[in-house]
């Protein structure tokens, strides 16, 4: 009954519309290759999608119940559905209930690779951003502003005068390092750059609370950097990485005059971001089809190399290369029942990543939480980021927790409501859940009883929350002309995702430029909403 | 942004831009004649106004066009009676200025015109603040905008605190904004003037400001705007509010012996003062000198009273004159007490062998600084005893020994009894100031611990220490401790010279002043009678400048050889100077010696081994007041050959030198100069080479 897809041969077939898949589709199409981009669901975004409130509620009530495509989220385990009922007024007068995303919080650096790629692909008109107004670090039971620019250091009255100097001097070192042609400055030797970042900070006379600000709120370390507890060397941030993130943070702060801070959040959630790249791919000639189930792969009988795919309707589509999202996985080729074909192909049936190897990293889980509250954590500020450094909530909790509050300005929730997304990278679900609960308890006032109404404590009230744990997987070993994309990880920004995506691209197309600069004549842009310059919607 | 040269527009202007520029020039050339014609003929037709507007949009700097515009507006306003029409005219005018500002937001003419239009009072002021916020967003430091903002604030009557909040916002955005800091200082000064709530409120505000500005330079110690503001704040705390009297000659409690000299019309004057120095000279009258902390005017018979006991008529009608090139202001004021000499060489007043004089400098309205600040502090007076006709050297010695025997502690000026109550409150105020200084010194030391090479921090530390020293200076302090402090400050300045080479001369000057303060301390120490002398020996003292003149009013012989002096600025205060040696210094020109022309008693001048004539450019010429040089220039232009080279004339024509040593200056090789010099100084022995010096 389904229409046949014409033509049947492409340079590349991309399965899934997650963010990495969409970036690759756009990049490959921009290189002038023919691209077929399929998704088995009826929506864009896969793991990166934005779900409406009813959708997320049903996800919460049953992990495999009424999701648009339950197979997409096998890695997600519901931990604590603390949701007595959906708040009555979660839907505004226009019936807009906002959008939630499962892969949050994620933010883009103004000067980071994601924004750069949008600009290179001229995709900035397809998506609008809202700026994160300010960052805070949890210190002594309150939110303390993160001083990350000259003006912020000047205004911060919680820093002592000498600390202002030490911090500013350290920032100067960072910018010097970033601006030096070969990445060397007098104060840092090459071996220093391989040392743990925390060591360099200690050497710079920076007191512990400023080290925490730099490590967790600016260099965005995902895990505890305390050296004495360093059982796992991989979680230790190297100086080189720390400097790179700091430099990016500082450069991001001043990139767009309309964005006061370094971070941008895509309006309507990350789902819009994937759609922006999909549109780019489409503008460059990629063919996109949603609701297209794929039943198996076509494999060369002799070489066992990839040849093409078989759709659910049985159509065979051929391509030189294949890119799949993390939800797709081949059952082991050898054990698959194959149907011999005359043309020397065999079909290997795919499954949704049952056999993907989980990462060997001990911290292979990301616990996430979505909260809906009735007021902002900081009066007068709508979009904000809160960092909980290790041990700031509980002496035994060595996890880093991040919380992103989004207001109605980001179009993901109605006026007067706020969505707070929390996440922490952890090695076991219980620890992650505990850390998130501690952060939620610190931020919100969760009792809904009448007796609490007169509470002088003006913490926002928690209306609804959902905690879940995502188990990270790494793509299985490369298979010839097939590239595998990654899942949303535990980092705050998109750099790891973009780097992994670039690697996949270069493995498949070593000769081509990743994200070539696209020159689109203005009248070719189908989308007429190209009204905001540089993709930043001013706040 | 500061200290960076302006970048020229990148690359060569392209052909298209060049053509555009040329067509603009052509357009202007076409417009200007007709506009000037309209201006002359007072033609304010619609077309004329349109043409003018076009011109102003092309070039807002064309001031005549703004004038035309003003006249046109006046004309239009008179021709219309309807209030709405008036408002429309003004609105159109403001739109024109807006368009001109878009072309150049730093156009003086455009901003001035806007003020003029607004001052007509026919337009709402709120829109001006909208405009200002727009312009200040584009360029937060644009001083035109800030100036206009002050104007708009005055017009609208915006409360000072509200404006202060605005500067805070601008500083929070970027504290490298001296325009904002400056506006803050102006606003705070106004606030203090209007503050009736007492000193504590003002002091509290100042402490808050110190806190704010410290946050700025701790964040970035290389930004100069904060340091400038800090310097202003410090001035609010420690600077004296007005000029003060800081020295007299004859000094307080000194004894003068006056007798007839060998010269028929002159007196021989010997002054013995409590510093155990004897000054002795011959003059037509007894000079009286007053020295102030800054240049003042208004020193006269009313502000300075001289009481004598028994009463001496001559002392009641003295005429004080400023010492210096200015006829109005001077740091040093002088007068002379003239006594008639009878034919038998006895003095007219010789029957009054003893009388005492009280010179009282009163704090009555009258003595003010150029800034209009009246003289501050308690009434000060100086007591001097006059003795006549004693020729006996033994008697002089007795007077000197007597003085020493008194062990006079009060060598400064005495303050009159009546002012004691006032004085008490001053000391109390001083405690707050010392407290602030202590806190600030601590902060700066903390910063220097982190940033030892910060020139601003180091310089500020020196200023703070100097200020604290002058505040807490008490007679009870051991001179040795004071010397140690001064030497510590000199050490800091020496370090600064290395850190900040481009400004090393400034630091060397500051160092010189500290060296001189050490000299003053030394002079105040009791010495053996045989050391009594009117010679001040500052040979090889690493001096780049001379200061502390109020302490050197008594000096007759001054040896400044082997220093680094480039000028004799301020030397005019040394009215008793007879013999000056500034050999082996770095005097570059005769004009650098101009102040010496004001020393009536100077006889011997040694300027050997300087660099007079070695440099083609005379940097001291600008320092000479223009009225004098104009006077001379007009003579030069009138063809008076005598005054050529004019600087020789300027410096030497009124000097009564007996000896002038010019050896080792390249100028001695110029016959033109030497001829002029001989003409101006006919009775002076000129030394021009070493052999003649030996002779």
Automatic annotation (TrEMBL), chain A:
Gene3D superfamilies: FAD/NAD(P)-binding domain, Guanine Nucleotide Dissociation Inhibitor, domain 1, Guanine Nucleotide Dissociation Inhibitor, domain 2. Residues 338-352 have a biased composition (Basic and acidic residues). Coiled coil: none annotated. It holds the Pfam family RAE1_2_domI_C. Residues 334-358 are annotated as: Disordered. It comes from the Eukaryota. Transmembrane segments: none annotated. Residues 366-469 form the RAE1/2 domain. Belongs to the Rab GDI family. This is RAE1/2 domain-containing protein. It comes from Sphagnum jensenii.
TrEMBL record, chain B:
Residues 1-21 are annotated as: Disordered. It comes from the Eukaryota. It is an enzyme of class 2 (transferase). InterPro entries: Leu-rich_rpt (IPR001611), LRR_dom_sf (IPR032675), Prenyl_trans_a (IPR002088). Keywords: Prenyltransferase, Repeat, Transferase. It holds the Pfam family PPTA. Catalyzes the transfer of a geranyl-geranyl moiety from geranyl-geranyl pyrophosphate to cysteines occuring in specific C-terminal amino acid sequences. Belongs to the protein prenyltransferase subunit alpha family. This is Geranylgeranyl transferase type-2 subunit alpha. It comes from Sphagnum jensenii.
């Amino acid at each position: 009954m389904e229409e046949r897809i014409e033509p049947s041969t492409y340079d590349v077939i991309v399965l899934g519309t997650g963010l990495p898949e969409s970036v690759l589709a756009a990049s490959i199409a921009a290189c002038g290759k023919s691209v077929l981009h399929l998704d088995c669901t009826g929506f864009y975004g896969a793991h990166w999608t934005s779900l409406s409130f009813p959708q997320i509620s049903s996800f919460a009530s049953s992990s495999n119940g009424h999701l648009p495509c339950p197979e997409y989220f096998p890695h997600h385990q519901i931990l604590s559905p603390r949701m007595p009922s959906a708040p009555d007024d979660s839907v505004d007068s226009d019936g807009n209930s906002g959008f939630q995303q499962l892969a949050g919080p994620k933010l883009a650096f103004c000067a980071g690779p994601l924004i750069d790629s949008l600009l290179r692909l001229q995709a900035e008109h397809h998506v609008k951003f809202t700026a994160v107004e300010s960052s805070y670090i949890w210190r002594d039971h309150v939110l303390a502003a993160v001083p990350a620019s000259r003006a912020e250091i000047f205004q911060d009255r919680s820093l002592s005068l000498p600390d202002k100097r030490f911090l500013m001097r350290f920032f100067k070192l960072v910018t010097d390092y970033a601006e030096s042609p070969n990445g060397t400055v007098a104060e840092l030797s090459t071996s220093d750059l391989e040392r743990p970042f925390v060591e360099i900070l200690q050497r710079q006379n920076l007191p512990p609370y400023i080290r925490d600000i730099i490590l967790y709120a600016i260099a965005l370390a995902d895990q505890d950097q305390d050296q004495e507890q360093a059982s796992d060397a991989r979680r230790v941030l190297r100086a080189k990485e720390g400097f790179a993130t700091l430099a990016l943070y500082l450069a991001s702060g001043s990139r767009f005059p309309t964005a006061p801070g370094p971070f941008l959040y895509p309006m309507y959630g990350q789902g819009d971001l994937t759609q922006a790249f999909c549109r780019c791919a489409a503008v460059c000639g990629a063919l996109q089809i949603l609701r297209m189930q794929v039943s198996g792969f076509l494999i060369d009988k002799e070489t066992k190399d990839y040849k093409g795919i078989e759709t659910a309707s049985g159509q065979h589509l051929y391509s030189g290369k294949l890119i799949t999202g993390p939800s797709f996985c081949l059952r082991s080729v050898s054990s698959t029942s194959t149907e011999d074909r005359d043309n020397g192909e065999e079909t290997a049936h795919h499954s949704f990543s049952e056999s993907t190897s989980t990462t060997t990293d001990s911290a292979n889980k990301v616990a996430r939480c979505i909260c809906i509250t009735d007021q902002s954590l900081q009066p007068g500020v709508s979009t904000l980021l809160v960092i909980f450094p290790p041990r700031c909530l509980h002496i035994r909790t060595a996890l880093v927790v991040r919380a992103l509050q989004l207001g109605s300005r980001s179009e993901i929730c109605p006026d007067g409501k706020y969505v707070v997304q929390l996440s922490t990278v952890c090695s076991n679900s219980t620890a992650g859940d505990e850390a998130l609960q501690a952060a939620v308890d610190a931020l919100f006032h969760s009792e809904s009883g009448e007796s609490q109404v007169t509470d002088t404590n003006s913490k926002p009230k928690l209306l609804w929350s959902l905690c879940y744990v995502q188990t990270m997987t790494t793509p299985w070993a490369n298979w010839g002309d097939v590239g595998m994309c990654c899942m949303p990880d535990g980092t705050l920004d998109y750099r790891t995702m973009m780097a992994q995506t670039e690697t996949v691209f270069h493995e498949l197309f070593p000769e081509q430029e990743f994200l070539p600069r696209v020159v689109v004549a203005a009248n070719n842009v189908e989308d007429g909403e190209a009204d905001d310059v540089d993709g930043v919607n001013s706040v | 942004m500061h200290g960076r040269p302006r970048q020229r527009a990148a690359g060569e202007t392209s052909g298209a831009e060049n053509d555009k520029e040329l067509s603009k020039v052509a357009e202007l050339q076409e417009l200007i004649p007709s506009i000037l014609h309209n201006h002359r003929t007072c033609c304010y037709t619609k077309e004329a106004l349109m043409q003018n507007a076009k011109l102003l949009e092309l070039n807002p700097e064309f001031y005549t066009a703004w004038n035309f515009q003003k006249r046109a507006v006046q004309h239009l306003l008179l021709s219309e009676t309807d209030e709405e029409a008036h408002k429309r005219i003004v609105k159109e005018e403001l739109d024109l200025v807006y368009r001109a500002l878009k072309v150049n937001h730093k156009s003086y003419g455009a901003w001035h015109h806007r003020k003029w239009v607004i001052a007509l009072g026919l337009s709402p002021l709120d829109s001006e603040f909208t405009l200002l916020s727009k312009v200040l967003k584009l360029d937060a430091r644009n001083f035109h905008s800030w100036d206009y903002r002050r104007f708009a604030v005055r017009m609208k009557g915006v409360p000072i605190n509200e404006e202060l909040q605005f500067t805070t916002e601008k500083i929070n955005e970027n504290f490298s904004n001296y325009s904002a800091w400056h506006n803050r200082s102006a606003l705070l000064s106004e606030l203090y003037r209007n503050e009736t709530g007492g000193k504590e409120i003002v002091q509290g505000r100042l402490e808050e400001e110190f806190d704010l500005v410290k946050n700025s330079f701790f964040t970035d110690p290389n930004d100069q705007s904060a340091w400038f503001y800090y310097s202003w704040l410090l001035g609010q705390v420690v600077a004296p509010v007005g000029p003060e009297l800081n020295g007299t000659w004859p000094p307080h409690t000194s004894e003068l012996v006056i007798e007839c000299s060998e010269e028929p019309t002159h007196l021989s004057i010997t002054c013995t003062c409590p510093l155990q120095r004897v000054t002795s000279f011959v003059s037509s009258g007894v000079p009286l000198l007053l020295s102030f902390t800054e240049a003042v005017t208004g020193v006269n018979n009313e502000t300075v009273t001289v009481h004598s006991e028994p009463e001496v008529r001559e002392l009641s009608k003295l005429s004080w004159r400023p010492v210096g090139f200015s006829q109005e202001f001077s740091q040093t004021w002088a007068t002379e007490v003239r006594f008639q000499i009878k034919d038998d060489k006895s003095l007219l007043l010789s029957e009054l062998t003893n009388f005492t004089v009280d010179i009282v400098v009163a704090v009555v309205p009258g003595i003010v600084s150029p800034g209009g600040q009246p003289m501050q502090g308690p009434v000060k007076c100086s007591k001097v005893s006059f003795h006549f006709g004693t020729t006996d050297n033994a008697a002089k010695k007795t007077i000197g020994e007597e003085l020493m025997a008194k062990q006079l502690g009060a060598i400064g000026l005495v303050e009159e009894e009546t002012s004691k109550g006032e004085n008490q409150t001053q000391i109390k105020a001083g405690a707050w100031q010392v407290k602030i200084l202590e806190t600030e010194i601590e902060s700066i030391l903390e910063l220097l611990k982190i940033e030892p090479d910060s020139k601003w921090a180091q310089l500020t530390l020196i200023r703070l220490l100097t200020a604290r020293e002058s505040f807490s200076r008490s007679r009870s302090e051991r001179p040795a401790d004071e010397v140690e402090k001064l030497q510590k400050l000199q050490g800091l300045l020496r370090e600064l010279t290395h850190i900040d080479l481009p400004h090393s001369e400034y630091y060397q000057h500051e160092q010189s002043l500290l060296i001189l303060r050490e000299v003053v301390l030394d002079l105040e120490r009791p010495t053996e009678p045989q050391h009594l002398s009117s010679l001040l020996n500052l040979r090889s003292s690493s001096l780049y400048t001379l200061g502390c003149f109020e302490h050197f009013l008594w000096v007759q012989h001054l040896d400044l050889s082997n220093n680094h002096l480039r000028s004799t600025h301020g030397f005019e205060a040394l009215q008793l100077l007879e013999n000056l040696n500034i050999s082996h210094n770095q005097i570059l020109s005769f004009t650098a010696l101009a102040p010496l022309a004001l020393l009536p008693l100077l006889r011997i001048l040694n300027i050997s081994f300087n660099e007079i004539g070695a440099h083609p450019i005379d940097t001291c010429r600008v320092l000479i007041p223009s009225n004098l040089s104009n006077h001379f220039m007009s003579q030069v232009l009138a063809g008076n050959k005598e005054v050529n080279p004019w600087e020789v004339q300027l410096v030497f024509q009124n000097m009564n030198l007996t000896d002038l040593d010019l050896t080792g200056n390249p100028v001695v090789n110029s016959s033109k100069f030497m001829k002029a010099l001989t003409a101006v100084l006919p009775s002076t022995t000129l030394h021009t080479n070493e052999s003649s010096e030996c002779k």
